[in-house]
Amino acid sequence: MNSNNGTNSGPRRTKIGGQALMEGIMMRGLDCYSVAVRRPDGGIELEVKPDKHLARWYSRVPFVRGIFNFVSTLVLGYTCLMRSAEISGALDEEEPPKAPAPADEGSAPAGTGSGLETPSSPAAAPNGEGESAGGERPAPLHTAVPAAEEKEEKGLGAGFSVAVSVLAVFLALALFMVLPTAIVGGLGKLVELGRWRTPLEGLVKLCIFLGYMALVSRMKEIRRMFEYHGAEHKTIACYEHGEALTVANVRRHRRFHPRCGTSFLLIVILVSILVSSFVSWQNLWLRMALKVLLLPLVMGISYEIIKYAGGHDNLLTKVLSAPGLWLQRLTVREPDDSMIEVAVAAMEAVIPQNGEDDRW
C-alpha cells in the first residue's frame, strides 16, 4: 500500500467502499472485492474476486449510474452475506466465533492483522509500519482468488442471488413506499387532507424507516453486524488519512462516515418525499404506481447527492451529510479489536498498487 501522505492538507477520499457481513466485512475496490470473515476457530478467511463495476459504461453516466450501482451493490451484498454465513458458521452456532487475543496493543496477531499481504494486495503498509512488534511480517492469511470457480458460480447460485435481491427490493418498496401511501390514503377517507397529504406520506415513510432501523438494531446478530459496520468505517477513514492499517491506528478514528449506505437510504427517503410532492393525483392506486415508477429517478438523484457530498468538504456538503451521520448512530457501533483485524484484512486486499488510482 502506498502512503497517502502527499501534498493534500486534508484526508484523501477513496472509491473503496464496504459492507458489514456475518462475522465479517466485504470491501469493494476498483477491480476486485474481498470478503474477510472470522472463522469459528478464530482465524480469518479471506477471499478475493474480480469485479469490474467501475469499468462499465453506466459508471460514467450521471443519474443512470446510481440505479445500476444500487442493483449491483444489492446483488453483490447478498452474495457476500450468504458466503459469510457459510464461513462463520453463523447459521449453525449460537455463539459468534472467538478471536485470539492480540499479542500487542499496537499490532495484530500473526495471521490476522494489519500486515496481511495477498496476491491481490501487492504491497503492505507504508514504510513497514504494519510489522508486528517482533519485527516480522505476519504469515499470509488463507486467500482464495478463484478464476474457475467464479465462472461456476454464475449459474444457479448467481441467479438465486439476483432473485432474492429483486424480492428484497419489492419488499422494501412495499414497506417504505406503498405502505405510507396506503396508510395516508385510508386516513384521507376519514378526514380531508388536501395539501397535507404529501407531507403526511413523507412523515409516515420517515417514521417507518426510523422505526425499522431502531427495531433491528436491538437484535443480537444485527448489533454485531453494526459493530463490523463501525470497523469498516474506521478502517476506510484510517486509510484515507494515510496511516498504516494497524488496530491501534484504526481504533482512533470515528465510526461515522459520510459515504455510507445508511446515509444513502435516508437520502433516498428524503428525495422521494420531495419528488412525491409533484404527484398531484389523489387516486390511491395511481399514486402508489407513480411512486414506484419514479423510484429510478429518486435513486439517481440520491446517488449524485451522496457522490457530491463524499467528494467535497464545504458547508453545503456538511448540511447534506448531517442527517445520514445522525442516523448512523443507530446502524454503526464501536467495534472490538478482533473486528478491526477483519476489516484491515479485507481492506488491504483491495488497495490498488498505485495509491492514486482509487481517489474519489
Automatic annotation (TrEMBL):
Residues 91-140 are annotated as: Disordered. The chain crosses the membrane at residues 156-179, 199-216, 260-279. InterPro entries: DUF1385. Keywords: Membrane, Transmembrane, Transmembrane helix. PANTHER family: MEMBRANE PROTEIN-RELATED (PTHR42867). This is DUF1385 domain-containing protein.
